[in-house]
Amino acid sequence: MNNNYYKETFTPQSGIDTITIWIHPSIISNYCHFHEYGDNNKAINLRYKKEINYRTQKLIRTNFLVDIQAEALDPNNDIYDQILNILCFLAFNGTLHCPQKRDICDLTNFYRINFDRLYALEKLDFYFDLRNDDMQLLGKPHPNYPNTRYSSVNPSVLKAYYRPERLRQKHNISYKDIDNMEYPARIEFSLCRENCKFLNMQNLAGTYENIFLRYLPFLARKWINYRREVVEVKERNIHYNHHLQQIIAVAGQRIPHYNFLLEAPIKPIPYKAAKKDEIDYNFISDFYSNI
Predict the structure, then answer these.
(1) Is the dihedral of CA 30, 54, 273, 155 positive or negative?
(2) Is residue 262 domain-resident?
């Protein structure tokens, strides 16, 4: 689990920045491993987030999450398999319940078959890095983050910023490494359940290239909708980031349907009673936690 494939300042020009997995609380063995803000300096970060009813200000539930950063993922190998391996590690290190007398192959297969009853894909971020001179921020700066521009939709699906200022604030990277970054400008597509209905783990099967091509029409549509309020790119200069070039090219023609994207399954919210003709979504998690 200490395998970091990249330094944060020297990741590929394009990739998946963060994958966030929601964990069913029934299968958690050690809640003290999760912290309110976690540690964003780690490639794999365990945190919890309180879900509040903003009208009554009462607690609805506490959500437990694992953030998997780009540094922890090998883009040339199957991303879904790598996530399953990380979840298996969390079982074997005592964070999650671990069935006795089960090896990693058994547990991986169990997670793969029952993923949508134990976990949920909560968030998926794509990033595209550019040289400073090839990107210009548009629109009004955010009052809390003047170095960043966000699309108007809430939650924001497209944002752009210059990385050095953020990286210096983390205090875990040398200024020399930050100053030596060749591509310090970043564009991100931040997909969550409120702005994307295609957060299905099956969409993360395969390499980064496979995943990018599945989401390409969706990203192109968001680029059309929001780029004019977020960022301007010198399109002729960005030959070094062919993935962003593909998004721009697809956005300039008739965008195909999202035929290769599966819609997100129902989230296995704990303690929610099954309605008529619905599956009891807590059955598998209760079964697993008692093995």
Answers:
(1) negative
(2) no
**Number of neighbouring beta carbons within 10 Å of residue 273:** 8
In a domain, 283, yes or no: no
For residue 6, being part of any structural domain is answered with no
Contacts of 236 (CB under 8 A, 6+ apart): none
Instruction: Give tens-digit pLDDT for 4-62.
Output: 888 888 899 999 999 999 999 999 999 999 999 877 778 999 999 998 988 898 998 89
* Phi, psi dihedrals of residue 157, rounded to the nearest 5°: -100, -20
* Residue 105, token pair as written in the block: 């192959």
> For 84-116, how does the pLDDT look when each residue is reduced to its tens digit (9 = 90+)?
999 999 999 999 998 877 788 999 999 999 999
Structure tokens at 220: 């192109």
Whether 204 contacts 77, CB under 8 Å:
no
Closest CA to 23 of 44, 42, 39: 44
* DSSP state for residue 81 in the 8-state scheme: H
Q: What is the rounded CA–CA span in Å between residue 26 and residue 23? A: 9
What is the rounded CA–CA span in Å between residue 145 and residue 230? 13
Q: Average pLDDT for residues 74-85, to the nearest whole number?
A: 97
**Domain extent for 111:** 14-252
9 within domain boundaries:
no
Beta strands in the chain (DSSP E): 14-23, 44-53, 58-69, 119-130, 135-137, 148-150, 158-162, 185-192, 231-233
Which of the four pLDDT bands, split at 50, 70 and 90, describes residue 271? low
- The label of the residue with tokens 């595209």 reads 128
Look at the block and give the residue holding tokens 């998946």. 16
How many domains is the chain partitioned into structurally?
Answer: 1
d(CA 45, CA 67): 5
